[in-house]
């Protein structure tokens, strides 16, 4: 088996999920892991298995007993050796196609490196900051703010798993949302679809054809009749029964006429084919599709972003940008022009669902959709040329293939662009005005914490889980003051590089524990006052719970958030699927999850 | 955070695939040290994108045994037993299940999952079932009497297509693929694959569409030169007949609602004359990444069909000389897949249907479930976390929500959601039953069993019927038609043995109808070392690593 065949076989099961194009975008990425904690290593493991072409681990720590306890990808022989090197050695074997020079271990303090040579980090497509206190995360957030580098923070703090992402601008070619955006154009068929429907009106059909008519065609004709009777093409919820009745009567009457005039020499009528027909049932189940389909909000938002971009840059095409983004905006501009030229309609997708029909009618219907999808894509292709400047010799700076445009235009309702806010930690050194609004949003989500913590989570408001953001921030402030996390033993050997070391959590006396609880409570109180969050957080048992976590990682939670990070990293790097925007907080014990914008 | 009490818990991990690898790693890293692994499968190249306990050098070896030895390298103090066996084998009986604190299931097929589910319900051992598909997945606990079991909800049955659609009026690519698969099974498959085969038209069948072993035979595994010539000619004839002649006949008798098929020979005119092809000049497409996604030309497809037909015939005659020894289509058999690909593509051209790539054809015929490393990681982690929560009650936040159903979706903006598991379905055919463990020797007669055990021990009154579910459901006894059953025969003569489940049903007209299961579990001989078991011996705990 050649290397190429081997590769296609190894990645076969996942390419079936996202396609060869997304796979190759992903393979061409370079991922950097800052701090090889258990959660970070788990995330990197999945990304290497998935076939990332290059990765770097930056970690100044050495492997300790604590790592052996929670990280699968180190072993006894690694004790005392560079953690970055050990992890890289253990993980690189999981990508058979990795070039040796693309598996890089850097045994240095990540923050020192960021301060002394920031350009080191500029080459990465994605930086994963794993189980680092928020002061370290803040530095990376500031660094990535003005670059195209994707930043993901992953934190496993006891039972908690936190994932936060940031990317300046995320262009998504196909969000793959379910159910997908669809417009069968029943309320406003294009000429060929209307012609097809007209040629298949009930009065023109042979008796045997009534039951074989696809519901989509039947509904176009029924809607025309409705318009004739009512003078409108809309059907209110209350009118649905009336519409169904009208169509049933029409179909029945025409069927009976056709039966009466049926020529027996053309064959017997199948007894199964008598009204009511299944196609009407199917049509009524799809009655919501008879309404005019509005432009999706995502698309409207996308066009607004395009306008802002044009106002800012005076052009759609920017030769300085990565090629993928150039293509995205040129295609978006063509899409906007297409929508303008087509009365607010998106290009047609060739996909129609399975339905009761004779193969002849279904075939005709499918061909009508396929032909229109092709024609629309062709029109889109022509529209792109206005936005692509030419070189001195008259060659276009960007060559668009029909296939590429077709892929874009047939998914047009599922294209979108996301702009992320910087990762919110509540320990930022400088406060912007935007942050104030974010704090008040957070305060609303958290609300009041009752004395009985169980009541708080049993209400099952996922937003409540955002409460861990200020609590973990307070733990980080505690660590800055005491050089250890609350609940960790007062050990002299806490080194900044090994911040996630649960060995320190081993034995804490009851008195020390209670003292930590009170110290942390004071910090939480200060923080809540400062950020306008409810002071009930500070008086609640959640503070004690945070001390109990003692800053340690728990392998099963690390495995879960590591997997979540790997999924998110893939979505962001492949420009496919809807990624997290921007915070995920998982509390393993009650199984509560918060997903949303902070 | 490390919980010492977990060290002594015994966990049975069913399936060492995508989820299994994650579960085993997370169990070991969380402190579990007593693990039993079962998986019948061997390691395949296509596992390497997610099953990280395996590497290229392990290809072809047992998943169960390799995962055991990899785990032992990292955790030499662990006690791990591995079985490369079918979990449905009778040796994994009630006593076997009862030694575990929990079963974790990471399987890809409904049938085996149902079996493990049933064994857990009968034995009362908790089960956590994990499953993934693409970017979505689920982890679900099954606690007898407390939560919904795997059989409480109906699972989607595989889709079947109407025979007339497949034979005469395909409209979708999948119809053509099903047709090609039927053609393959008819000519190269075992006899049972021809049962209900839409292309097997009995007497009307064209003399070309018959099993290849009926055409000629290999002597001592060698196909004669004359037969080779005949087989080549036959390949061309089948091609001509399937994609042209037969369809022309069909077009002539066509109902006006059916699409006219385009004969391939008419389309090929000028490009290729198949009658001039010979084994030396005709090659099939390759199995490369590019070819997998390419759109092939008509002559390429025609050549591939003829070539693969010929190669399959020769292979069949030399390796599987009778129909009984022939094998069903296997998606990893690249020759067979090329045949299906070419045949389905040609048929798609006949009916002007969108053609699928070889890559998609494989997915459709192989029922391939898309699988991604990250999803398995999440589901594996969730499964183990639920297990830990279940086994420990040390946490102040513990409540009923701990036994959660966790679903992960890519689309609902929630990413992951946990909910309390549903209550058991009172109508469930599996967990709503009462199970009686019967240790009678099945050599007793049916009459004796009914009189002394059912009516005596179980005190069942009124009319009832007995049935067994393995290998397929059949009635063993019905008190209303007692004379029709061989009452004097022994249960073992009627197919009842150790590990057999007998279902008892009472008619609804009884005041309190009973339905229950009677599970035969013979007293075990005095425990011995597992050396008496034939077949694959389990790998026993390895001694401590030597330095």
Automatic annotation (TrEMBL), chain A:
Task: Report whether Transmembrane shows up as a keyword of the record.
Answer: no
Give the domain of life. Eukaryota
Task: Supply the InterPro entries for this chain.
Answer: APP-BP1 (IPR030667), ThiF/MoeB/HesA (IPR045886), ThiF_NAD_FAD-bd (IPR000594), Ubiquitin-activating_enz (IPR035985)
> What Pfam families does its record include?
ThiF
Record keywords = Ubl conjugation pathway
Pathways involved: Protein modification; protein neddylation
Listed Gene3D superfamilies: NAD(P)-binding Rossmann-like Domain
Record keywords: Zinc-finger included?
no
- Limits of the THIF-type NAD/FAD binding fold domain: 11-576
Family statement: Belongs to the ubiquitin-activating E1 family. ULA1 subfamily.
What is this protein identified as?
A: NEDD8-activating enzyme E1 regulatory subunit
- This protein's species is Blattamonas nauphoetae
UniProtKB/TrEMBL annotation, chain B:
Domain THIF-type NAD/FAD binding fold positions: 5-429
Question: Region labeled Disordered — which residues?
Answer: 527-547
Which part of the chain is the Ubiquitin-activating enzyme SCCH domain? 322-362
Q: Where is the composition biased (Basic and acidic residues)?
A: 538-547
Q: Where are the transmembrane segments?
A: none
Assigned keywords, A-Z: Acyltransferase, ATP-binding, Ligase, Metal-binding, Nucleotide-binding, Transferase, Ubl conjugation pathway, Zinc
Any single GO molecular-function term of the entry would be: acyltransferase activity
Could you tell me which pathway this protein works in?
Protein modification; protein sumoylation; Protein modification; protein ubiquitination
Homology family:
Belongs to the ubiquitin-activating E1 family.
**PANTHER family, alphabetically?**
SUMO-ACTIVATING ENZYME SUBUNIT 2, UBIQUITIN-ACTIVATING ENZYME E1
Q: Quaternary arrangement and interactors, per the entry?
A: Heterodimer.
Q: What is this protein called?
A: SUMO-activating enzyme subunit
